[in-house]
Amino acid sequence: MTPDILIKKTKRQTVSLSITKELSVLIRAPLWMSDSEISGLLTKHKKWIDNHIVLQKKRNEKAGEYKPTEAEKNELRKKARKLLSCKVRRFSEIMGVTPMGITITCARTRWGSCSGKNSLSFPFRIVLLPDNLIDYIVVHELSHIRVKNHSPAFYREVGKYMPDYKLRIAELKKLQKDIPQF
To answer: Quick check: pTM over 0.85?
Structure first.
């Protein structure tokens, strides 16, 4: 079976390749990128695409095993708000930064964000992660108050407060595929 190919061209600078829940290949490309370059990208990454379609099928099957009720999701939201309020307060004092607020979201593809106005957002399902990874995500987002990108300077900032951040990133990457995407 040949997967559907979805191409989204925007004013971005880089190309990204992902597999959707519907098992389509999603290519996000800069406006200037030609169709032949995109075709070459698909050919070059065929093995990666095939492997990740299999992984996404497994995730889809696993996610189908359990669907939380709205009441359960609301409980997770409350737990996330309470937990993250404490963690953000604690780490912001240690780091000497002041976030403008915390929002609990339903995001599925990211563990946190920091707006240009220093407002932090976290998905409610973050509470399903081990405590040490939640700490890393909080420090990561608080570090964006000082450095707004993912440059080496940003990771030096993270490393000041969490020297083992690389191990935590690796652990998060391993675990996140097993966290439900509800």
So the answer is: no
